[in-house]
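for the writeup, i need someone to sanity check this before i put it in the appendix. the sequnce is what the collaborator sent (i think, or maybe the updated version? ugh). structure was predicted straight from it, no edits. if anything looks off just tell me and ill rerun, i have time this weekend
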Amino acid sequence: MSTQTFARFDSVERRSGFYRQAATSEADKFRQNSADSSLCFDLAEIVDQGCGLYHSVNKLDEDWRTMIADRRCEYDSALEARLEKLYHDWLGTSRAVLDIYRAVESQYANFGYDLAQIDDLHRAVREVEGIFTKDSGFFCSDKFVELRDAAIDDHRGGNTTKV
């Protein structure tokens, strides 16, 4: 593993810590005061920080897995654990940020802040929640049952080809 890759992990982990600290500070401010324009401004900055951090963690994950697939480095369970912790920490912090947003939602919109970043953060949270969802919990809808049953019927009816 290159020194540059370790440096990227370290950098993203530091940014994760800053994001967590900023969100905690904002939550404390919110508990002390009602929503005002400065709280919403700070929240907008934190949402932006959270979206940027999500993209950094995702890119780090993608690059690392590509390096493994290309045999440019060996799989390292310790790095896998660091990535999972980054996603987990980001998810917990982002959920807290979205909780603050829900509490000040009308004021946030009234002050004219961009709701697109909030939507991006919501989407990213759902994606990371999906990463942490066990397959048995994810692939359980009736649609998947119908697809499975149709595939079995097709196979039994000779309508499939061996790959």
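The chain is about 80% helix and 0% strand. Residues 77-110 form the longest helix (34 residues).
thx in advance!!
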